[in-house]
Amino acid sequence: MLWELFSSHPPTMQLCLRLCAGSPYLNSILTSNPGMIDELLDSLMLDQLPSHDEMAEELDTLCRGAVEVEPMLHSFKNSMHLSVGVRDILGKSTIGETHSTLSDIAEVCLEQVIHHEFHRLVQKLGVPMLQMPVPSGTEPAELVVLAVGKLGGREPNYHSDIDLIFLFDGDGETKSLVPNRRFEPTTNRHFFNQLCQRVIHSVTRSGASGRLYDLDTRLRPLGRSGQLAISVDDLREYFASGQGQIWERQALCKARPIWGNQTARTNAMQCVREVLTSFTWQPQYAQDIWQHRMQLQEGAAADNLKRGVGGTMDVEFVVQMLQLAQVGTHPEIMVPNTLEAIQRLHQAELLDSKTANSFDQNYRFLRSIESGIRLMNLSARHELPKTHAELEQLSFLLKSRSRIALEADELARRCDQVRNECRKIFETTFGRWMPQEEVAEEL
User: Is the dihedral of CA 82, 308, 222, 170 positive or negative?
Assistant: First the structure.
C-alpha cells in the first residue's frame, strides 16, 4: 500500500526521502507510528495547521472517558509534531508560526493533564473553596498556571523544556462533593500543591512512550525552596517585601496565563504587572542582569547558540532589561514574545531601526538553526554540529525549507558573524545602562 501511494503521489515519496535524509527526529516518529503516514499527506494538502481550540477539541475527544490519558497524549503530540515538522521542512510555515503551533501543542497537552488530575484529586480531597464569602454564597478557588520562558513567549522548539509558575487565587478549605458524607477538609494550599505534584509527575514520568515534556518550576518565587503553588497574594507580598531578585522579575517578563478562568487569569496578570512596575529602576540592576548572563555563559561550549557568546540569550537579555527599565513609561513594551518585544521597543524608540532590524533577523536566524538541530535529533541541542557531515546534513535540511540557502562552511561562518553582531549590540546596550564605573571593567 505504501509503494502504491509513493507511485501515485510522488510528492509523498520525495517528502519521505527528505525526512530520512534530514530529520531523524521526525523519521523516528514515523517509523514508530507507521499509521501516521496520513499526517504526511495532510501536511502536503492542508493550507494551515489546526488552531489551539481545534487541537484542544480533538485531544478532548481522544481522552474522553479514559482512565489513563498518557497514551493519547503521546500519540497526539507525536502526530502534531510530525505535521508541524513536515510543514517546517517544506517551508510552508515561518519559524514564528512553527514555534507558535508547538506552543499550542504543549498547552493543550498540559490542559488535558491538569483537567484530568484536578478531577481525580477532587474525588479524594473535595473542591477547594475561597475563604471569603461572595454575594452568591461560596465560590470555588481557581488554579492559575503561568507559562514563562519559551512557552510563555510562544516560542518553544521541538524539545524545549516547559517553564511554569503555579498560582491559586485565594485561601480556604475544600468542600465535599457528597452532602452529609463524613469528610475531613484540607486547605486550598495543600490541595493545589498536591495537584501540582500530580501534574508534574504525569508530564515528566518516563513511560513506554518516553517523557511527554521536561517541566521546570525553578523560576517560581523562592525557587526550589518554595512551595510549588502559592497564592496570588503570596506573589504580591514576596516582591513587596523586597525579597524578590531582579532575575525573578526578569523571568516574569515572559509570563503568560495558560490555565484558569478569565477572572483568575486577569487577577494573576494584574499582580504580575504590579510586580514589574512597582519598583524603581537602578543602573545596578543592569549590572546584575549582565552578571547573570555571564554566569549562564560559563561552561557553555564555544558553538552553543543559546548560552554561548552572541547566542539567543544575548538578544533576550537585552530585550528583558529594556522592558524592566522602561515599562513604567512605556507599558506597551511588556509583551512575552521576543520578536514582538523587539518591534515594540523600536516603536517606543528604545531601539533604533538598525539595531532592531539586526536583532530581529539574527534572532530568527539562530532560532531557525536551533530548530534544524532539533529536527536532526542531535544530543547537543543548542550547539552547531562539529563534524562536516552533520553540517552538510543541517545545510540540506535548512535549504529544503527554502529559508537559509547556505553550504556547510558558509553556514558556520554566517553563525559566527551573526553571533558577533549580537554580542556587539549586547555590550553596547548594557554599556549605556550599567553604572559607568562598572562599564570599563566589565567590557
Answer: negative
Residue type (1 letter), 301:
A
pLDDT value at position 33? Answer: 87
CA distance 95 to 401: 10
Reading phi first (left if > 0) and then psi (alpha if -120 to 50, else beta), residue 149 is in: left
For residues 166 and 228, is the Cβ–Cβ distance under 8 A?
yes
Ranked by mean pLDDT, which of 32-41, 83-92, 224-233, 348-357 comes out on top?
A: 348-357
The secondary structure of 87-114 as a DSSP string is HHHHT-S-HHHHHHHHHHHHHHHHHHHH
| Cα-trace Rg, the chain | 23
> Domain locations in the chain?
1-93, 125-279, 280-443
Tell me which architecture the domain covering 125-279 has in CATH. Answer: 2-Layer Sandwich (3.30)
Residue 15 is predicted with a pLDDT of: 82
- Residues 390-431 pLDDT 10s: 999 999 988 866 567 789 999 999 999 999 999 999 999 999
pLDDT given at position 401: 60
Based on the number of CB atoms within 10 Å of its own CB, is 136 exposed (0-12), middle (13-18) or buried (19 or more)?
Answer: exposed
Please name which of 43, 147, 59, 167 lies closest in space to residue 103, comparing C-alpha atoms.
147
The pLDDT of residue 89 is 86
Nearest alpha carbon to residue 374 among 100, 41, 106, 102: 102
Cell of 81: 509534531
In angstroms, the CA 275 to CA 256 distance is 14
Mean pLDDT of 117-146: 85
- Overall CATH class of domain 280-443: mainly alpha
pLDDT above 80 (res 324): yes
